[in-house]
Design goal:
With 92 residues, this protein is an alpha+beta fold. 20% of the residues lie in helices and 28% in strands. The chain has one domain (5-72): RRM (RNA recognition motif) domain (Alpha-Beta Plaits), CATH 3.30.70.330. The strands form two sheets. Strands 2-3-1-6 form a four-stranded antiparallel β-sheet, covered by helices on one side.
């Protein structure tokens, strides 16, 4: 794993920052950001090795009645790779 920031998703929309703090209490966490009401958030750990350890332990775990998805966070703006052109006016 290259980065130390994890995407954590597929949890209940009612989960708050404090809940993820408890879930990640066994790891050296630098920052937690929950996108409230959306069922996902981001957890930054102290090192890529610590992030890999947390990912291996928590990905697929049952939490709040749902199966967690934990993966390395992608940098902003790295959405789909299909290179769509916006607006529909740039036709070939």
């Amino acid at each position: 794993m290259q980065g130390s920031k994890l995407y954590v998703g597929n949890f209940s929309y009612s989960v708050k920052k404090e809940d993820l703090e408890e879930l990640f209490s066994d790891y050296d966490v630098k920052e937690i950001n929950v996108i409230e009401g959306k069922g996902f958030g981001f957890v930054e750990l102290a090192s890529p090795a610590e992030a890999e350890k947390a990912k291996e332990s928590l990905n697929g775990k049952q939490y709040t009645g749902r199966t967690l998805r934990v993966d390395e966070a992608r940098p902003r703006g790295s959405g789909s790779s299909d290179n769509r052109r916006g607006g529909g006016y740039n036709r070939y």
